[in-house]
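Lab notebook page, bench 4
Experiment: in silico fold of construct C2
Operator: M.H.
Input chain length: 44 residues
Purpose: comparison with the prior construct
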Amino acid sequence: SGPDPTPGTAPAPRPDPAPTSGPAASPTPALTSHPSVDTEEQQP
């Protein structure tokens, strides 16, 4: 997101879009799991 000398030449190899579709997507489902617990805690 910075070392890219040509942001319009190789926007695909960027590591930004990779994590979103790669194993880094783990944090996404984790957030969904958090709210679930919050709702249960809120409900007596």
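Observations: DSSP finds two helices and no strands in the chain. The mean pLDDT is 55.
Next step: discuss at group meeting.
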